[in-house]
């Protein structure tokens, strides 16, 4: 769609959506959010960007984001396997407190797991939607 | 450590393999080689798991160290182990077959990673100890199967695949709703806890209603009468490799879930389910075999036969005695080998004739004796000829059926055996017998991997028949443990106590 208005909106939405996704990702362990939702928000922003700025014929070309899928899978499975290597059950996570007093930040390996999920969701959603965008019609 | 690895590998190993295969997209030969290596590891670990659980040990793995009361457990008992072994076997044969059988870039491109994702779902469905995660792993399995059944994307294939997708999506939605209702009524989704609470009595009618709904969904996945119609039209349209893989694994996972859940809850369930299930099983056998006789393509007949055979397995379960249950399990394992071998042999014939139509091409027994031998052994096994595995499956079932006092259904199972023989001979006559004619592309079917996979599966069916006595006595122990229920429940609850002191953030 060649629309001036849509392009302007998309330009504004993309950075906000990505920031929002990052905040969802970070708060996901203790509050609503997490890698899955963050991934969907990011993918939606990227799709909006593609609708506004990429010509339909170009959209059909396979986007190169499959790497995000397998990298994410390895990260997520890897964080689970660290515990196995240490002799604990699969997917046991470790928690740390960084800083002290009111400046304490709670970190855990679940965040890494969530980053893995995030990567898988972004990659697979974009790949799927791009396939629907035109290039992969059944013969 | 070793124990927990053995429980982890069937799910996590294919997942890692899939992740590692994806960057190799487009380099099919390398993907196949890597998948074969990975499949070897899976097979070896399944053998170890079988050995470890053979004496009745039950391995419980609480993920993340959470108590099974709130967390996720994976449970490997002898039943799960033996299923995983046969899953790994069929999946390995499929990998051997795939190289020669997949046609063109569109079929090959994503097959190997999708195959691994399917294994993740199958392995998880077998190992999970709670029904919510059963739902999750069903979904993993289904998502991969949706992509696999449409692999190649021919218009007719996509059209025939749509009912498969819709039926399974509706099934999943009902499943999820029922799991929610069970959680609301019983306060847990852990199967061991559910069994305990059901046994204690006093659960509301909602619980049993929701449980019945879950079982109906499992019946849909298993393709039992009257909810089988999604299968016979969609499977033959998928690529042969996928057809063989699905025939060997998917409905059998449905069968497994019924074998897993019904003994856990059946003892406390309101009466009447048993005769109903016997009737469903008998009707499934009949409808399946007549449907198969009416089909006019090789894989059409074979795919409709899946339905009929599932009836036998569930017949064994419905009788609910150790003997009959073991017979149902034996039949399940036999079928995973024989049915996949048949589909694979049929696929080669289809390739050589350029069409799957019966009588389009004849005389393969003259020109391709090895392929014909593979088909013949598997077909006679399916029809129940001694000394092949299918004979023993039926033999034990008849014994179990008569002992349990179900003469009518037992008689039906024998009658269906005759019609099975007729439909196998129908394919044999149309494709393998007679003067060679219509073999338009003989070169296309001559592939070492395709022939090797078909013959190995047929040989294993023969071997299972020859070793029927030790295998069956093992399965009888499995069935006894399954019907006893207490070892399973006790093992999961022991894990609860062990982990209550563990960190729970």
TrEMBL record, chain A:
Entries under InterPro entries matching the protein: CPA3_antiporter_subunitB, MnhB
Pfam families associated with the record: MnhB
Residue ranges of the TM segments: 12-29, 35-55, 67-91, 111-133
Keywords: Cell membrane, Membrane, Transmembrane, Transmembrane helix
Top-level taxon in the UniProt lineage: Bacteria
Major localization class: membrane
Na+/H+ antiporter MnhB subunit-related protein domain: residues covered: 6-126
Membrane topology (UniProt): Multi-pass membrane protein
GO cellular component: plasma membrane
Family recorded in the similarity comment: Belongs to the CPA3 antiporters (TC 2.A.63) subunit B family.
Name under which the protein is recorded: Na(+)/H(+) antiporter subunit B
The organism's taxonomic lineage, starting at the top: Bacteria, Pseudomonadati, Myxococcota, Polyangia, Polyangiales
UniProtKB/TrEMBL annotation, chain B:
Annotated InterPro entries: CPA3_Na-H_Antiporter_D, NADH_UbQ_OxRdtase, ND/Mrp_TM
UniProt record, GO biological process: ATP synthesis coupled electron transport
Membrane-topology descriptor: Multi-pass membrane protein
Keyword terms: Cell membrane, Membrane, Transmembrane, Transmembrane helix
Domain (NADH:quinone oxidoreductase/Mrp antiporter transmembrane): residue spans on this chain: 130-419
One MF term in the entry's GO annotations: NADH dehydrogenase (ubiquinone) activity
Location(s) in or outside the cell: Cell membrane; Membrane
Chief location bin: membrane
Transmembrane feature ranges: 6-26, 33-54, 74-98, 110-128, 134-153, 165-186, 206-228, 240-259, 271-294, 306-327, 333-349, 370-389, 395-428, 449-472
GO CC terms: plasma membrane
Pfam families: Proton_antipo_M (PF00361)
Domain of life (superkingdom): Bacteria
Family: Belongs to the CPA3 antiporters (TC 2.A.63) subunit D family.
The protein's name: Na+/H+ antiporter subunit D
Naturally occurring in which organism (per UniProt): Polyangium fumosum
């Amino acid at each position: 769609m060649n629309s001036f208005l849509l392009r302007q909106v998309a330009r504004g939405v993309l950075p906000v959506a990505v920031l929002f996704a990052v905040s969802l990702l970070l708060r996901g362990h203790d509050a609503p959010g997490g890698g899955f939702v963050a991934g969907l928000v990011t993918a939606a922003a990227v799709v909006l960007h593609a609708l506004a700025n990429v010509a339909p014929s170009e959209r059909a070309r396979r986007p190169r984001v499959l790497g995000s899928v397998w990298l994410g899978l390895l990260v997520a499975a890897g964080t689970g396997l660290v515990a196995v290597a240490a002799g604990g059950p699969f997917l046991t996570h470790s928690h740390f407190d960084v800083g002290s007093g009111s400046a304490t930040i709670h970190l855990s390996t679940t965040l890494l797991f969530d980053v893995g999920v995030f990567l898988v969701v972004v990659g697979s959603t974009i790949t799927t939607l791009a396939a629907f965008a035109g290039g992969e019609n059944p013969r | 450590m070793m124990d927990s690895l053995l429980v982890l590998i069937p799910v996590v190993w294919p997942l890692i393999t899939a992740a590692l295969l994806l960057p190799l997209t487009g380099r099919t030969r390398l993907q196949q080689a890597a998948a074969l290596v990975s499949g070897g590891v899976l097979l070896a670990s399944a053998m170890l798991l079988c050995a470890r659980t053979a004496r009745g040990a039950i391995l419980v793995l609480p993920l993340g160290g959470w108590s099974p009361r709130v967390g996720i457990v994976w449970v490997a008992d002898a039943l799960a182990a033996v299923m995983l072994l046969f899953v790994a076997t069929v999946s390995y044969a499929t990998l051997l077959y795939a190289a020669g059988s997949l046609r063109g870039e569109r079929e090959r491109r994503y097959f190997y990673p999708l195959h691994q994702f399917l294994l993740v779902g199958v392995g998880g469905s077998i190992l999970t100890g709670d029904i919510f995660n059963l739902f999750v792993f069903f979904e993993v399995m289904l998502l991969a199967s949706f992509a696999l059944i449409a692999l190649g994307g021919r218009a007719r294939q996509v059209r025939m695949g749509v009912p498969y997708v819709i039926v399974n999506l509706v099934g999943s939605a009902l499943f999820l709703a029922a799991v929610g209702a069970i959680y609301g009524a019983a306060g847990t989704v852990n199967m061991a806890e559910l069994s305990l609470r059901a046994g204690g009595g006093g659960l509301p009618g909602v619980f049993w209603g929701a449980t019945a709904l879950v079982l109906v969904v499992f019946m849909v996945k298993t393709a039992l009468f009257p909810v089988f119609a999604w299968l016979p039209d969609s499977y033959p349209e998928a690529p042969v490799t996928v057809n063989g893989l699905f025939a060997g694994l998917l409905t059998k996972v449905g069968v497994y879930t019924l074998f897993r859940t019904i003994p856990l809850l059946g003892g406390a369930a309101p009466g009447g389910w048993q005769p109903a299930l016997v009737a469903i099983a008998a009707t499934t056998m009949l409808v399946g075999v007549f449907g198969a006789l009416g089909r006019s393509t090789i894989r059409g007949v074979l795919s409709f036969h899946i339905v009929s055979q599932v009836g036998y397995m569930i017949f064994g379960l419905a009788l609910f005695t150790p003997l009959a249950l073991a017979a149902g399990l034996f039949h399940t394992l036999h079928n995973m080998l024989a049915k996949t071998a048949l589909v694979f042999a049929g696929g080669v014939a289809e390739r050589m004739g350029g069409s799957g139509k019966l009588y389009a091409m004849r005389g393969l027994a003259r020109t391709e004796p090895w392929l014909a031998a593979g088909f013949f052994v598997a077909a006679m096994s399916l029809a129940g000829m001694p000394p092949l595995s299918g004979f023993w499956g039926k033999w034990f079932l008849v014994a179990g059926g008569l002992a349990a006092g179900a003469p009518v259904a037992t008689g039906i199972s024998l009658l269906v055996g005759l019609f099975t023989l007729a439909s196998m001979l129908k394919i044999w006559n149309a494709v393998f017998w007679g003067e060679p004619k219509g073999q338009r592309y003989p070169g296309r079917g001559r592939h070492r991997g395709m022939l090797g996979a078909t013959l190995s599966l047929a040989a294993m069916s023969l071997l299972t028949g020859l070793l029927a006595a030790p295998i069956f006595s093992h399965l009888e122990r499995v069935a006894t443990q399954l019907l006893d229920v207490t070892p399973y429940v006790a093992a999961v609850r022991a894990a609860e106590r062990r982990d209550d002191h563990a960190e729970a953030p």
